[in-house]
Amino acid sequence: MKECDIIKDLHQKLINFDNHTFPQKGTAVNVSNKQGVYIIYSANNEVLHVGTTKSGKDGLNQRLNNHRNGNSSFSKKCLNPNNIKLSDGYMFKYIEVENGRERAFLEALTIGLLKTT
């Protein structure tokens, strides 16, 4: 399978996965310690952010907890100034992607198709 077809297939799988609700503060996100790509949605199912894990031993759990706890550039730029708490009904979906190149392409494709940051 060509690389572009692999990325398109990963994107379709990501879009079709179920949403998960961010847990309340004090309870950690616990979905996967692996690397991957994720989409964050508002309580109204509006796409707010598409991101990827670049490193970090706890992978998706670590990155999503960073967002939920206000410790990411996305949180500091978009959520904190507007007093938005991801634990107030916001959701995410994710896909595990081991290959860093595929993660980068999947993130870029998903951002482009969903027209978000």
Sheet with the most strands, sense and barrel status: 4 strands, antiparallel
The number of distinct helices, counting runs of at least 4 residues, comes to 4
The assigned CATH architecture is: 3-Layer(aba) Sandwich
Strand order of the largest sheet: 1-4-2-3
Spatial gap, N to C terminus: 29 Å
Overall CATH class? Alpha Beta
- The secondary-structure class comes to alpha+beta
Strand percentage lies at 15-25%
The gross shape turns out to be globular
Q: State the share of residues found in helices, binned by percent.
A: 25-40%
| Count of distinct structural domains | 1
SSE pattern, N- to C-terminal: HEEEHHEH
Q: Which regions have little confidence, pLDDT < 50, spanning 5+ residues?
A: none
Q: How large, in whole angstroms, is the Cα Rg?
A: 14 Å
CATH third-tier fold name? GIY-YIG endonuclease
Average pLDDT, rounded to a whole number, is 94
Number of strands: 4
Characteristic key phrases:
117 residues; alpha+beta; GIY-YIG endonuclease; four-stranded antiparallel β-sheet; 4 helices; 4 strands; 39% helix; globular
Can you give a write-up of this model?
The chain is an alpha+beta fold. The chain has one domain (3-114): GIY-YIG endonuclease, CATH 3.40.1440. The protein contains four helices and four strands, in the order αβββααβα. A four-stranded antiparallel sheet has the order 1-4-2-3, with helices on both faces. Helix 1 (3-16) crosses helix 4. The longest helix is centred in the last third of the chain and has 15 residues, at 100-114. It starts with a helix and ends with a helix.
